[in-house]
Fold each of these.
Amino acid sequence: MFKTLENSQEYTHWKDASQELKVGYMWFYRRIKDGRLEHKYDHRGQLYISNQSLFDELSDYQ
């Protein structure tokens, strides 16, 4: 289950990711405990990502 940063220390917030990727309505997280790449959206449409290849994978969103 993916959680917001406020509810879990398992995620690191990439503060500048939304601006750099020009999708400012999304927030990006790296899930520490699981190396698998997963894309999940919560009820607010926020994107959670569990892999350090975040910027490579999200280059398509630009």
Note: The beta strands are 11-13, 29-31, 39-41, 47-49.
Amino acid sequence: MIERVKKWEKDHGQIPGGAFVAMRTDWSKRWPDATKMENKDGKGAAHYPGWSLPALKFLYQERRITASGHETTDTDPGIAASKDDYSLETYILSTNHYQIELLT
């Protein structure tokens, strides 16, 4: 994920401090179907995209963004959220920043 952020910056310029950064995956095209949004496998584990810790640290610590957002229901990838692992969301909130979920 961090490679994608750096490629975006190469193509468009450095992300300025104080910016809001949204991750676009087109997952919102599954809205409003909850089953499609969760994308659960046969064992009940959700499969949807999410942020990575290196990308979030780069954005919040190095680029000093104000907030981030995404189209999915959680910051963490679905497979992590299925295991009650919300470490990425916890990271953002622990830095006294905010996020916006379910961007459509």
Note: The mean pLDDT is 97.
